[in-house]
Amino acid sequence: MINYPNKKKVNISSTNSNISRGMNLEKDLNDSNTFYKSINRALIYKKPTPIQVVKVDYPSRKHAKISEAYYQIPSTTDYNGIYKGKYIDFEAKETKSKTLFTFQNIHDHQIKHLLSVIEHGGIAFIIIRFSSFNETYVLDAKQVIDAYYTSEKKSLSYKEIKSIAHLVTEGFTPRLKYLDIIDRLYF
Question: What is the number of domains present in the chain?
Fold first, then answer.
């Protein structure tokens, strides 16, 4: 049994050598960000999707259930926060494709938001996981933005991403060591 700084306990005997199997990118990032906060390295949070609640069912006072809601506005990106005194903002995407990351996975308003972050002096990037290979990459937002607006094709190939992005080291604490890459790229 391992006791993590966030009081989470993991039974090692139930894990196999491929520790990320069955875990998704968002959970891995949330766990990593919780760890980074616990050691006072960074404050990075998952942004909630803004919804407008229309109808709530109350079978009992303690068991209220949202039964109807809609998105108020398109969300921007998945994560933001502060790292080494700089604003940090990024989108996280997971694909099962073995050959490419299609731009259908990222929306125009997200690209514009990342561009705005860069223009205001913030750090912007995309984390892409190829779940078929169990590989996670950090890709500078400028490279994605350039390809999104100038490329005739509507995707980046797995081979291109491997050549221009940075493979994230995985472990127990933090689960994804993506800030090590941010240190190399931006500081």
Answer: 1
With a cut of 90, say whether residue 16 has pLDDT above it: no
CATH of the domain at 107: 3.40.1350.10
Domain that holds residue 164: 2-48+74-186
Say if strands 86-95 and 123-130 run parallel, antiparallel, or are unpaired. parallel
Would residue 60 count as lying in a domain? no
d(CA 183, CA 36): 14
- The residues, any chain, with a CB within 8 Å of residue 5's CB and separated by 6 or more, are 35, 38, 39, 173
| pLDDT band with cut points at 50, 70 and 90 for residue 9 | low
- For residue 57, being part of any structural domain is answered with no
**136 C-beta neighbours (distance < 10 Å), count:** 26
Cis peptide before 174 (omega within 30 of 0): yes
29 domain-assigned: yes
Tell me the helices (H) and strands (E) count for the chain, helix number first.
5, 12
Alpha-carbon dihedral sign for residues 143, 112, 129, 187: positive
- SS3 state of residue 125: strand
Element (H, E) at 84: none
For residue 178, pLDDT over 80 is answered with: yes
Mean pLDDT for all residues in the chain: 87
Number of Cβ within 10 Å of residue 73's Cβ equals 10
